[in-house]
């Protein structure tokens, strides 16, 4: 029986960031269609390599940890972007590649700094806590004969208030 493959080399963050920077830099020159195709393929490859590395590290964190929730959202977003199809015209394909580049940046940040927290991480964590609680709670799921929710759940009310406060704090925070 063979052992599972292990990563012998760390992620090449410098190369990954340079590829993302090529599309996201202020005043970056628009790539040619051929260069854009190459950059898109590189970014997709970087994401495919980074996802299992970041995921392995983040799943070791406690279930209700804000940093875990933040990284899991970034991982899910990266997976969605991998599955998205680029548009037909050049500007749509550039936008698609820029989305991939942002995911590469986020994954690099989470891989490089296990304590990295995206600006909206508290809001995401609060939302995730609600999503984890409510579907399994019998009080949250109580309905009348017409399908209207009738249950009251102190935990869900508290979690919603935490989410509301996190959203309010995020909206009031200055943008970088």
Provide a descriptive summary of the structure in words.
- The protein is an all-alpha fold and 176 residues long.
- It has two domains: 100 residues, no CATH class; 52 residues, no CATH class.
- Helix content is 63%, strand content 0%.
- It has six helices and no strands.
- The longest helix has 26 residues.
- It is elongated and about 60 Å long.
Helix amount: 55-70%
Q: Kindly provide the radius of gyration, computed on alpha-carbon positions and rounded to a whole number of angstroms.
A: 20 Å
Structural class: mainly alpha
Q: Number of DSSP strands?
A: 0
The biggest beta sheet, please? none
Number of domains: 2
How is this structure best summarized?
The protein is mainly α. Helix content is 63%, strand content 0%. The chain is elongated and about 60 Å long.
Please describe the topology of this protein:
Elements: H1 13-24, H2 33-58, H3 66-83, H4 90-112, H5 121-133, H6 154-172
Short descriptors:
6 helices, single chain, about 180 residues, mainly alpha, 2 domains
């Amino acid at each position: 029986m063979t052992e599972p493959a292990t990563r012998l080399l760390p992620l090449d963050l410098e190369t990954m960031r340079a590829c993302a920077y090529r599309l996201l830099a202020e005043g970056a020159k628009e790539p040619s269609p051929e260069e854009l195709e190459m950059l898109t393929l590189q970014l997709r490859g970087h994401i495919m390599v980074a996802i299992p590395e970041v995921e392995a590290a983040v799943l070791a964190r406690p279930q209700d940890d804000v940093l875990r929730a933040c990284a899991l959202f970034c991982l899910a977003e990266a997976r969605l972007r991998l599955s998205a199809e680029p548009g037909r015209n050049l500007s749509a394909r550039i936008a698609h590649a820029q989305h991939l580049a942002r995911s590469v940046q986020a994954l690099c940040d989470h891989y490089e700094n296990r304590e990295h927290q995206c600006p909206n991480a508290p809001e995401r964590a609060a939302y995730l806590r609600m999503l984890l609680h409510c579907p399994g709670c019998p009080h949250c799921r109580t309905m009348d004969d017409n399908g209207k929710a009738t249950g009251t759940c102190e935990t869900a009310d508290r979690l919603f208030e935490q989410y509301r406060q996190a959203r309010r704090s995020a909206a009031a925070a200055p943008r970088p």
